[in-house]
């Protein structure tokens, strides 16, 4: 079976009746959402909170009941994908540009589960470019401020030769680094820069990661 499908579907085993479930974004959690919809048709009672407009549309299409974030103060369980996961379960997210809403929902979740194929598990973060969401106003200045931190090489994300716009109306700077030795320090440094809305480092947030390898193997990884 496709590793993304295997990991994505496995996460549904942790969903229980009456939970508020954060619905992540991307091609792995897509399988989680499909499986959840199946379970709902069989009688599972949950409400979902989508982390992006794409996920919201998918959930509506599949008949998953949704609840608005404005009426919530916590989420029981959030399930999402990741671009990189290290052995401490620090993550890079935001390859799909949904990092801000994903982090907001993960931050109020009692449990936060990552689903990923084996290629996402790395010893050190940073091979995947780190996405940073910035406001369009003065983004060039924000980029210069980010560059002062070190050799981070932020590049404006483009789509069809124009800036990629997030669901929140912002831009993304993708940062090309050799490796990120101290993600907990970098996330603080980045978020202190005015103009930075959020960055794609998720540190000390993930409870466990469901990693699917080749030959239909699944490993549940807890931070070390
Ligand atoms: O952070 C994300 C979107 O902002 C995704 O979770 C991440 O990019 C992984 O996506 P995929 O499962 O398609 O590889």
UniProtKB/TrEMBL annotation:
Pathway per the UniProt entry: Carbohydrate degradation; pentose phosphate pathway; D-ribose 5-phosphate from D-ribulose 5-phosphate (non-oxidative stage): step 1/1
One of the record's GO cellular component terms: cytosol
Superkingdom of the organism of origin: Bacteria
Alphabetical list of Pfam families matching this protein: Rib_5-P_isom_A (PF06026)
InterPro entries (alphabetical): NagB/RpiA_transferase-like, Ribose5P_isomerase_typA_subgr, Ribose5P_isomerase_type_A
Binding site for substrate: 25-28, 80-83, 93-96, 120
Assembly information from the UniProt record: Homodimer.
Protein name (record): Ribose-5-phosphate isomerase A
